[in-house]
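sanity check both lines:
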Amino acid sequence: MTAYRNDDFAELGLPTEFVQDNHSYSAKNVVRGLHFQLSPPMGKLMRVTSGRAFLVTVDMRQDAAPFLKWVGIEASEDNMVQVWPPAEFARGFAALEDNTVVQYKCTGLYDPKGDAGVLWNDPAIGVNWPVTVPILSDKDRNARTVAEYVRSFYE
């Protein structure tokens, strides 16, 4: 598999410069997200290199007509699907098998001061997660709702 080729990405209008690669290793039923970084802006090309995961992206652009529209797709090492959530889109995933590895090619460097997120199961978004009893980190369990996140801009 060729996961990235500069000329193919350019032809599709996708970024051709990535500055950081991340790997996330998860057990079955782990849900991570919904995360994003605005400063510096970071888009992430997501793919699964081991196991299976439900990859999710949510449009967080408050001035866009598709604000909070989400897309979810199953990706695996077998189907080789990749998902491109640009900057200003939240992303997350649910691991559908043990030993699931999600890899990210990032267009920005991670900065903890710019790290943001919203609650994975916020009804304002309504992601139809394929996991009924998720395993969550404290960060994801205690994330803000969309309403709290938006309100923080005006405080």
The mean pLDDT is 93. The chain has three helices and nine strands. The beta strands are 20-26, 31-37, 44-50, 52-59, 70-76, 82-83, 89-95, 100-106, 115-117. Helices lie at 6-12, 138-141, 146-152.
